[in-house]
Amino acid sequence: MIDHVVGGALLGLVAIAVPVAGGMHSRSAGRSDFSAAARPVSALCSAACVSGEMFSAVAFLGAAVVVLVHGAGAIWVASGLCIGFCLLTTLVAAPLRRSGVYSPSDFAEWRLGSRKVRRIVSACVVFAGWLYLVAQYLAAGLLVDRLAGLPAWLGWAVLFGVTLVIVLGGGGATGFQAAQFWIKLLALAVPAAVLAAVWLLGAPERAPDLSAAPLTAHQPPGDGIAGVGPPRLDTPAGVLSLHVALALGIVGIPQFIGRLSAARGAREARRTVLAVAGLLGAAMPAPLVLGWLARDRASDVVAAGQADAALLILPQRLLPGPYGDVLTVLIGLGAAVAVLSVSAALCRALGGTITQCMLGGGAGMFRLGVVLAMGIPVLVLALVPGVAQWSVLTPVVPALALTAVTVAPMLLLGLWWRGLTAPGVAVGLITGLAGMAVCLAAEADLLRLPGPLADLPAAPVPPMLLLVTAAMVLVSLATPRSRPGAVEAMLDRMHVARPAAAARTRPAD
């Protein structure tokens, strides 16, 4: 492992360089570039921004960990993402672009005419975002611990402070966010290619055993918190639940709505979704290759409870000495850039949502909203026993699941069914929020569910999705008078392509 002084200095350099570069780029770009939907941008630029926000340190560290722990059988789980992108392209991208809204909360209020429903949707988005931010904090703590030899809480503090500087300083313009995707891709692809070449040239006696049973992860004693390791794929129900969470979680990600609204037209929105799928598809082989190599040369880290650090340990296992240190630094710096950029994007989005829907709006309230967006997750890490020992993947799965069973059905039904009403959506969203909270508490051993419900927390998404969808549909059918009077005009606007002349006054097609 590299010298901790060098590692700490490099992490400090990244912590300074990212907000400075983002702020400089933002000042040169102008205030209009701060919002994803402020002005039209190309499909490739929008796709790079979304890909950069999705291709976080959690994504590429976590993908390698899943392959390390579960073997090659885990790779096909990514088909859930493919299903999600197909749904976005065929059912969501074009009508959502024509609606002209900028967020799930905006869509709920525009489609249903209800401020109350807007607030409930905002609560779903904020809770899911907080879970994603917990994962970013865990990744920051891991990097500081492994590269600098410092306590994890110091990484949390640095991430909190630097993210506030980036967001409150107006950093993170569109071009800068897009450039960060290519930086992260380079920081991962180069080590993957070099280490794969070293492994091949070393004339291995056997290929890594990718079909073996899942490796056993260490369970920290004493805190009683379950689920500290990677996602469990040991049952068909668990695999199905993760697939549905990935597919519909992608549909409900708020970043997509903003980026689709920034597209020049409905066709450009579809191209943006396809470009995101292509960019992420090009990026994902690198962490899978690294997980494949780690299963051969670093499988002992799983039993030691250090699976998350596998990518930082692997270079020295395959290439001991200074060259291995260089690759470790490259991976670590790419992860650090990813943590900072993704945290800034999440903080900005959540801060705006909290400000508009819970604090009454205004520039002064936005600062408070940003502090709450970053502060609540770090308080959870510091005060809730056992959370600090979670794997970086542990909070991501419930975040996807929450989005999948709340925002996604509201969005799909709102786009395609004229009978949806505000009471139906409100009941469905509250059901989804309450159900996922109970499942998460049960998974963390904070409560025990009775008899037939005992297995629900292990695979909650399919039954919760059915329950939420049924609640939205049945309550909507029972409250037809709450249907917006302009619903036909809304559906016409979303689903009927307009000629070029009409594009001047209506969203472009």
From TrEMBL:
Any one biological process term the GO annotation gives: plasma membrane acetate transport
GO MF annotations in UniProt: acetate transmembrane transporter activity; symporter activity
GO cellular component, one term: plasma membrane
Keyword Transport: yes
Membrane-spanning segments: 6-24, 44-69, 75-96, 117-138, 150-169, 181-201, 240-260, 272-294, 326-347, 368-390, 396-417, 424-444, 464-480
Membrane association type: Multi-pass membrane protein
InterPro entries: Na/Glc_symporter_sf, Na/solute_symporter, Sodium:Solute_Symporter
Main location: membrane
Keyword Transport: yes
Subcellular location: Cell membrane
Keyword annotations from UniProtKB, A to Z: Cell membrane, Membrane, Symport, Transmembrane, Transmembrane helix, Transport
Family membership: Belongs to the sodium:solute symporter (SSF) (TC 2.A.21) family.
Protein name, UniProt field: Na+(H+)/acetate symporter ActP
Species the sequence originates in: Murinocardiopsis flavida
